[in-house]
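Students often ask why we bother predicting the structure of a whole assembly rather than each chain alone. The short answer is interfaces. A chain on its own may look different once its partners are present, and contacts between molecules only exist in the joint model. In this exercise we take three input lines together and write out one structure for the complete complex. Read the inputs first and try to guess which parts will touch.
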Amino acid sequence: MTDAGYVVTGWVLTAVVLAGYWASIARRTRRARRSLPPEESPRP
Amino acid sequence: MNLWREAMLVAGKDLRIEARSRVTLYQVLPFGLIVVLLFAFALDPSRGVLSRVAPGLFWVAVLLAALLAVSRSFAVETENGARDGLRLSGLDPAAVFLGKAGAIAFQLAVLEVALGAGVALLYDVELRSLGLLVAAAVAATAGVAATGTLYGVLAAGLRVRETLVPLLLLPVVAPVMLGATRAWEAGLGSATSDGWPWVALLALFATLYTSIGMLAFGPLLEEA
Amino acid sequence: MNEALLHRRLATVIGWAALVSLAVLAVLGLWVAPPDAVQRDAQRLMYLHVPAAWLAYLAFGVTALASALYLWRRTRSAVWDRIAGASAEIGVVFTALTLVLGSLWGRPVWGIWWAWDARLVTTAVLFFLYVGYLALRRIPGPGRATRCAIAALIAFVDVPIVHFSVDWWRTLHQEGTVFNDELKAQIHGTMAFTLFWGVVAFTLVYVYLLDRRYRLEVLEEGRDERELEQAIAERVASGDADGSPAPGTLVDTGARR
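Now the answer. The structure tokens for the assembled complex follow.
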């Protein structure tokens, strides 16, 4: 593949960013749920 | 009282405060001049670089000084519940907006004359079309003052106001920067293209953001 | 099946659809699509860059629309405020991605990391507009929704002005015509399909992330409210425990009222 360095970097970076952002939302969601009092429904 | 009378009332108040405290004159103006000087340290003054980029540097200095002017305009409203006073005064919020923006614009105009003289002296520029320079400056200043007042009231009650307003304001006034510099390049003889279409763009920007400001100032003042 | 469960199932389906379509995009973009005649394999970055850019602007549009709906009395609802905030956070991620991918694409093809053309500059300004909006969003308080909504609309109006003025500026300068011409190049067949697939895949990703980010917003709002109530309760309780006297009694500090 020509310019493989650029192409691979771009695709890997995209995967990492999307996965990382998704994980960030998941992590923050877990943290917010933990502070819930037991009687409230966790899923709106 | 009609809109203009109320606006003049508010502008008069702000300008009277300035006349007594002289903050714009003794602090903001020297700041602008220092910025103009600093650019000369940053760039090479001996090879005609400065005269070519003078319009851009001038407008950057004005924009940075405008940040201080906007900050000051709303700092005077924080003491003694002045904001509550504005809210309860029964003045039309659109008039308050026009008044405050007008006072900022007036102070910026004074600043621009002084900075313009500084730039003309230090950067060795040639004057080609004074009318173009003035028209562009009026439109650009109106746009910056309107947008600055809008963000100023938006951030008025917030503790992070000082760092927030520059972050919010500068990206939005990028087109003013662009248009004013291009118009001044034409007016100072360093560009061959026509500057007047840029003045039209600046006027459009000013009109648009003044309108938005008149609409949004009321709700924002309520929340401040 | 109750509504909440249906919602959960739908979100899961969209999530999986997004993941699968991204995998398919990778196959299409890295394998199936042929290398470009001029750009060769570097063009494969376009299949990410263009969808990311599309999403950056879509998310921004959603933030602006939700902000307008919040401000308009007849449709005012916390739902719009949350959507605006959630969409903005997703948008800033995609805007940053767009800019970086653009540089990675531009360097091998045109030899430059950056170019001063309308699209790139507007995207850079968009990034900063987003950052400002998110900074505003972090400031708590009852007026947050109104402040943010107005800021979003101010920014939204600005974007076309920025684009137009930079475009005009560059055409006057007549620079970078090669750059501009190649960006407008026609693409056909597999390449066009892959690009289209990329837009679809990223849109699914956006919808899924918006849903998840929205739910997070709801949870965090609830938590902030509870923390505030708790702080107030603690303050009141500590006031009582101080032994502050009922009004009218003499305070035993030696001083007389």
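Check your guess against this: The first helix of chain A runs from residue 4 to 34.
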